[in-house]
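Lab notebook page, bench 4
Experiment: in silico fold of construct C2
Operator: M.H.
Input chain length: 508 residues
Purpose: comparison with the prior construct
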Amino acid sequence: MIAYLIKITLCWSISYAGYAALLRHTTFFQLNRFYLLGTFVLSLFIPLLPWTNVLPWLYTNPESPAVYMLPVVSAAPEHIQALVQAAAPRTPVWQQVLWVIYALGAILFVFRLGLALWKLWAWRKQGQKEFFPEFCLVHTEKTAMPFSFFRWLYWPTQMEAGEPESRQILEHEIAHIRQWHSLDLFIVEAVSALLWFHPLPRMYGIALRNVHEYLADKAALRQGSRKGYGRLLIRQALMGNTFPLVHNFSPAQLKKRIKMMTTHQTRPGALLRYALLLPLPLLAGAWFAKRTPALPQETPATYVSSDSTPVKQLNSIVVVGYGAKKEQKDTILPTAEVMPQFYSDDCIGVTDEKEKQACAMNALMKHLGKTLVYPELARQEKIEGMVVVSFVIDEAGNATNVKVVKDIGGGCGTEAIRVVETTRWTPGFNQGKPVKVEMKLPINFRLSQEKAAPTPQPAPAPETSSDANEIFMVVEEMPVFAAAKRPQTQRRRKNAPTGSFLSSSPKI
């Protein structure tokens, strides 16, 4: 949001400064109106244009190579998980306060704009209406000065419409209606309400109102002399009438209007000024976009569990930068036309490029989930953080030149190198030829926050009764001789001791 505001401020500032310096005193009123309205609206969309597609040659910077970043891998000691990208950081408190202030201001100014529209609707509904081919005349007691809003012309009941001076005022307002000046004001007022803290929309609004009045004055002068119309403007300005969304007689613009009525026509050669100023906002937007390349957007986290089962679809790899260098022999490139992908037998039969890329990403995350081990030293010393590994995929698809760009100690960097060296890849291609491509893999080592399971306690020994040594004559289940077969019923069990004993006794 802040970057967008800076960009539109830059475009607005250049456009308005060019108007104030070269066009404000010219008599090309209609062209000035189109210039102000066009640059005002166009500047809102210039920062949103895909400049890398519109002007690709402008963003080829060999001194600033692209950086090909693989997804972030998050390693926990108990559950190794692959994380495509971390969740968005929490918004600072001061930014939250600014957003609240902006929201309150926007609500206030939008309410003010809505209240003005409601008043115009209520006055139109309550007033006496006369319909004409180009407009509708509304007689009302709510205003002391005539004004127009789109095709509705509000006329005070105390003013006679048949007088010569009133005829000039009527022509003045009809000119506003014919040329749709209310549409210009509505656009500027709406943007001013949303960007209530920004001064440039209000400056554009003042300039557009002045140009509208110059155009309407030019039409009104056809019905009378400049001198008489000038005296009429002075009387009307002293009465005063301020209302948003409409054109009001203002003392602040009275001097400018009278001066423009007496100014000679500007020479046609001054039209070259428009050709000089119109490209400036486009060039400013393109330059600003080149100076601040877009960053990858935050995406929700995507995990692969320890059993290598993907929880949800992985996102594609993000490429950030200005573009690729020109290919040279035996040169390690930051990007390629076809980037390397993790090799997996599961992806051999996939033909669709997007599905193949997603399959390779899933396979990479599964491999990392199985292979990564949290170093014991880092676990004992409670070391956490991100390790970044840089490596080169050669023409055969091997991970070479593996090195740690950022390390946190505790053996995490060594473990990251070991994991990368176990990977297999399909090589990158430029113009159908395999090339060497540099890649980076961030690995986030973090300790698990899960609570340890309670240590099982041995079962308590049974309590020893004081009657343990007591000898019983009869018990519920009598002892059975070991050589006897197990009785099937309780009755046979009672008879078993005697039979068994007799069968084992010697004969006499």
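Observations: The mean pLDDT is 75. The first helix runs from residue 2 to 23.
Next step: discuss at group meeting.
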